[in-house]
Structure to design on (242 residues):
């Protein structure tokens, strides 16, 4: 198998962030890994143009959630719906702040390949890129991705207002079902036996969500900020009864 360091060095990466410092920081880290085939985009529009480069298409996009013209969620949905001149399974790493948890659920539904929580560390970025050596998970049909509503989230991003209405943990009701397992014990095919909330009380994933391998990896990447180490899960037949 190809060495991971050689794999990273051979990647063609587009990095998109409207904050110059963050853009320069991530680009510098990627260059330190030996990767020189990098395109920088300071806006969502530039990112869309960069990934649509048919003569030299990228195989990785690192994109910020919150950009003023076209945001990261919109670009991710364009890719998964086949609306960009790039393969639908393009690997997408999403840059996110700790206050963006109302957006995380939509990114998971759009099969984002990894989260990078700001401030991004060199070790975390290296780990996320190294994991791309594995084949991408199965992606869903265009119709399924098209049904994911991100318009309200996008309007809120543009207005710079908080997304959604977080509920205090004391108001999060509902009786969990199934068994309680730690993150490392979760396996593909299980279903959530409870709603999963972000640190401010915002709903992240609803009960009965099916856990794919991709989704489990995303949750593990965010477990530190989620502030939870375990959750209730059920089997398929139990989820149908709930």
């Amino acid at each position: 198998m190809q060495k991971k360091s050689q794999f990273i060095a051979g990647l063609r990466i587009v990095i998109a962030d409207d904050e110059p410092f963050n853009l320069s920081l991530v680009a510098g880290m990627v260059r330190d890994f030996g990767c020189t085939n990098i395109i920088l985009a300071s806006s969502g529009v530039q990112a869309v143009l960069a990934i649509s480069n048919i003569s030299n298409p990228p195989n990785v996009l690192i994109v910020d959630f919150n950009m003023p013209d076209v945001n990261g969620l919109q670009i991710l949905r364009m890719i998964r719906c086949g609306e960009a001149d790039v393969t639908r399974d393009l690997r997408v790493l999403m840059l996110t702040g700790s206050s963006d948890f109302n957006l995380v659920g939509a990114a998971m539904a759009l099969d984002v390949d990894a989260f990078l929580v700001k401030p991004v560390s060199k070790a975390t970025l290296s780990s996320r890129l190294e994991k791309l050596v594995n084949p991408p998970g199965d992606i869903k049909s265009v119709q399924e991705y098209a049904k994911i509503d991100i318009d309200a989230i996008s309007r809120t991003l543009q207005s710079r207002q908080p997304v959604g209405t977080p509920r205090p943990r004391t108001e999060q009701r509902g009786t969990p079902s199934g068994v309680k397992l730690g993150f490392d014990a979760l396996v593909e095919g299980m279903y959530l036996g409870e709603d999963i909330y972000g640190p401010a009380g915002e709903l992240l994933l609803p009960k009965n969500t099916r856990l794919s391998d991709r989704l489990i990896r995303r949750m593990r990447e965010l477990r530190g900020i989620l502030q939870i180490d375990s959750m209730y899960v059920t089997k398929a037949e139990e989820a149908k009864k709930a």
Remarks:
- The mean pLDDT is 84.
- The beta strands are 13-16, 38-41, 60-64, 91-96, 114-117, 179-182, 191-192, 196-197, 203-205, 230-234.
